[in-house]
Amino acid sequence: MAIAKAERLMNLALCLLGTRRPLSKRELRGSIEAYMEATAEDAFNRMFERDKDDLRELGLVIETVENLDGETGYLARRDSNRLPPITLDAEEAAALGLAAKVWQQARLAGAASGALQKLRAAGMPEAEDAYDSQASALEPRIPVHEAAFEPLMLACRDRRPVVFDYRKANAARPETRHVEPWTLECWRGHWYLAGWDRDRGAERVFRLSRITGKVRSRAGAFTAPVPDVVTVRETVESWAGETATRSARIRLRSGCGYPLRSRAQSVREGADGCDELEIPYGHGLDAWLVEFGPDVVVLEPADLRADVVERLRAVAKG
Q1: Cβ-contact 165, 174 below 8 angstroms
Q2: Distance from C-alpha of 203 to C-alpha of 195, rounded to nearest angstrom
């Protein structure tokens, strides 16, 4: 079905680009095989309108012109759909090459490689790669280990609602969540999804590593508006205490918890194999501390200690 639709869109685009005068729906129906196979007029009209909208969404400029007889025609002028020449200097080419190396997972790697090949064929200069893996130990990467990444990426792109099972940090069992996905963002080595949680009627951020099972797509349109700017990172930072105004004291086993040590406001070495750290305390810090297991003990405040203990007990119960 996907191949048939892609072929139909290509044929429609070629017809609109290859004509010197506007073509009516009747003429287009007689020129494209898939349209000729539509026996009912209503079915053809719906198919044509969807295809026209899809081509416009892909960037094709389609003009609607009415002739002297009042019949509507369509065409895509080549001068309106021609991209300007691509001019990149060596530094810009090197930046694009470096960006393409970031994606080494799933279909993104092929898309990035294909885009570079097209740009080079169009005249982009070949830049010396200062980050060649054979010449340097430093190479940019954005890891994508979660199986949920690719279906969620496609759902964000296509604006399709999804359903998945999600296990919160303090929950023994996962819950089914119905989400309208907005965007994905990587922060501190973890991928997060921002979207509209239909069950809770509010915006939510989900960590992909806590999604269990498969992500299932659902038909239908979004029920909530998609904001122009989705502040995934700011939301996650506030949960992790990045924007906190309070402080917490913890005991941390020596040689462990380097992410905590990097954010510590003060560190006092202990003689018993543990260090005492003062770290920013904000919403969600308890969930983060639980991930370090027995390497961390909360000293104060008491409410943070109680939250961590409660989460650990929930995990122990399974």
Answers
A1: yes
A2: 6
DSSP string covering 94-153: HHHHHHHHH--SHHHHHHHHHHHHHHHHTTPPPPP-TT-TTT-S---------TTHHHHH
Per DSSP, the three-state class of 80 is coil
Q: Which residue has the higher pLDDT, 46 or 68?
A: 46
Residue type, 81: N
Q: Name the pLDDT band for 198 (thresholds 50, 70, 90).
A: very high
Q: What is the pLDDT of residue 130?
A: 44
pLDDT of 228 higher than 60: yes
Report the pLDDT value the prediction gives residue 1, as an integer from 0 to 100.
42
Cα gap 92→35, rounded to integer Å: 44
Sheet holding 296-300, edge to edge: 266-269, 274-281, 246-253, 296-300
Q: Residue 286 corresponds to which tokens in the numbers above?
A: 């308890």
Give the span between the Cα atoms of 255 and 62, in whole angstroms.
63
